[in-house]
């Protein structure tokens, strides 16, 4: 009978240890669930932030392209204005000169020089210098 009691007590102690181990495993499982849930929420938040950043980048690229087109149009208008200014200056030179130059070679040379100057300035502006 003593052996049976000893076996019973030993079995009960073993069950208590197993219950403690099982409780620890349940605690670990709950902790892991909480950890994974937090990770998933963080990942979803990061995914949303990435989508917002991509949308913002796309809008910035569109704005940049529109500004480039406006800049190209402005440069074209500026070149046209510069060319027209040179034409008007040439006309004013002719009107002021009153036809003093008989050969016209000086006026032609001046027009050519101004044309080269306009082309040089335009090229310099396109390059960014």
Automatic annotation (TrEMBL):
Source organism per UniProt: Vitis vinifera (Grape)
Where does the record place a coiled coil?
43-91
| Alphabetic keyword roster | Coiled coil
Q: What is the lineage of its organism?
A: Eukaryota, Viridiplantae, Streptophyta, Embryophyta, Tracheophyta
Q: What name goes with this protein?
A: Uncharacterized protein
